[in-house]
Every structure is written in structure tokens, then in C-alpha cells.
Design a protein that fits this description.
25% of the residues lie in helices and 39% in strands. The chain is an alpha+beta fold. The strands form 2 sheets. A 6-stranded antiparallel barrel has the order 1-2-3-6-5-4.
């Protein structure tokens, strides 16, 4: 397998063992805000369910962009300084009223989804714009993928 195909495979597989991602947004006062949310990946897009009273919801409405991070658990890392991670700049679209997405959420998280959606929670799509980090460390300081260079930090 060539390096580009191997890198794409790594990207596609890295998030499979995650049930949540870290989300970074910007408040109306231009301050950073970080939290997390359970997610699903469905038809090559990420979806989260979020409460309308959550700070991220307000930030999503005001800004429409965020950054999501998937990071290897510390206990699984070979070296704490080189944890595997993948970060995306994303556009946020809410609300999403899609029965297929709701079904996928229910498959992954059970009937809790129906309860949350019956409250003030909404599903939204977080559409990736760019990959910021590769999901693995390498002996090389960078890797070329799809005509872009990704620095492994």
C-alpha cells in the first residue's frame, strides 16, 4: 500500500474507537471555550447532539465554525509527548432533522437519544474543512498527503 493510501486508511480508522470528541469554539467575547460531545460518523460526516442551553450551541449559532479533536487516551500512548491525535476545522450546521441520523445515534447510544431529543437537544452536522494533524506519530517530522504537508507534533 502506498503512503497516501496508508495515510488515508489511518485517517478513516482513527476515530472508530471514539465515542466522543473534544470541541473548541469561540464565544461572543472572542474567548476560547472547550468541552466535548458524543458523536457518530454517518455517511462521511460527523454528527453530535447538543442542548440548546449548552455554551457550544450559542457559539455554533453565533460563529458557525468549531474545531474538533480526537486524542489517544494517555494510558494507551507509547509516549505522553506524542499521543496520536486528529484535529479538524469544521463548519457547524444545526439543527439537522434526519431520521437516518437519529437511527444511527440510537444504534450507538441506545434509547437515551430519544429522551434527549424529546428535551431541548438537537442533532447537528459538523462538516470537516481540513485535517490539522495526522492520527499517528512518525519517525519523519512531517508526512505528505493529498498535496499537503502535515507536521507531526
Amino acid at each position: 500500500m502506498n503512503k497516501e493510501l496508508n495515510a488515508q486508511y489511518e485517517l478513516d480508522q482513527f476515530t472508530h474507537n471514539f465515542q466522543s470528541c473534544v470541541i473548541a469554539t469561540k464565544t461572543e467575547n472572542q474567548m476560547p471555550y472547550t468541552s466535548y460531545a458524543p458523536f457518530i460518523k454517518f455517511e462521511n460526516s460527523y454528527y453530535i447532539i447538543i442542548s440548546k442551553i449548552a455554551k457550544h450551541y450559542e457559539n455554533f449559532v453565533n460563529e458557525g465554525i468549531a474545531n474538533i479533536l480526537f486524542i489517544e487516551d494517555e494510558k494507551d500512548a507509547q509516549n505522553i509527548f506524542f499521543r496520536k491525535r486528529l484535529s479538524y476545522l469544521v463548519d457547524v450546521v444545526l439543527p439537522i432533522d434526519n431520521d437516518h441520523v437519529k437511527t444511527e445515534f440510537t444504534k450507538v447510544f441506545g434509547n437515551m437519544i430519544n429522551m434527549l431529543l424529546g428535551m431541548d437537544f438537537q442533532s447537528c452536522v459538523i462538516a470537516t474543512k481540513t485535517e490539522n494533524q495526522m492520527p499517528y506519530t512518525s519517525y519523519a517530522p512531517f508526512i505528505k498527503f493529498e498535496n499537503s504537508y502535515y507536521i507531526i507534533i
